Amino acid sequence: MEQTKQLQDSFMPEKFRVLSGSALKVLAMVIMLIDHTAAFLLVKSASATRTLFVLGGTDISIYRIMRDVGRAAFPIFCFLLVEGFVHTHNRFKYGRNLLIFACISEISWDLVHKGTFFDMSTQNVFFTLFLGYLAFCAVDYYKDNQLMQLICMAVLFAVSWNLHADYSYRGYVFLLIMYWLKEKKAAQAVIGTSWLIYEWKACFAFLSINMYNGQRGFIKGKWAKYFFYVFYPAHILILFLIRRMLYQM
What we know:
12 helices; Conjugal transfer protein TraX; TraX; transmembrane helix; transmembrane
């Protein structure tokens, strides 16, 4: 019933709802790869950063285009996290996997950002997703106690503020917006975009989110599922190694 209500609330006509959960995962991964290739690799390329044209006073380059395209990845991953929370059969195991891969991904993240295996000044986006997931669990567990909901969300907000994970507290609040408005897709798109207005290109993610058809899709089985966890730290490590070979840094 809840799934049907969410699908009916989509602002996309039914004939355009052609993306399964698996298709959204692949799309988000490709967009993330485009973004990170620019951020971690092409930022050092003179040809990629050369201005192609000027639009509204902003220099547009291949690098800029790829980074702007990449803004759509995070909202899609947040949407998928909400879907995962709603439909998982084991919330503890789901959260445990997020935390495990947050710790694993930190090695690649620190290497690409700081050139070291361990640095506490910044953390990867898995930690932001994990804090959001904990907030979902708290809100659902204390659904009859608003005070406890507020206390849990406030504590997790403070953690997200001080943790310096990717997207920081803005990402944490965005996850709450996606969760609270999961059955109101138009409001979700408007309020979510407004919250991420500093990265307004992210609004295009809501087009694909509203093309979701409610189907799981072609990704089935444990190994296929874990591939999408592994992809995050693996692709960052590969980009780091390529950058080291090309630019000795």
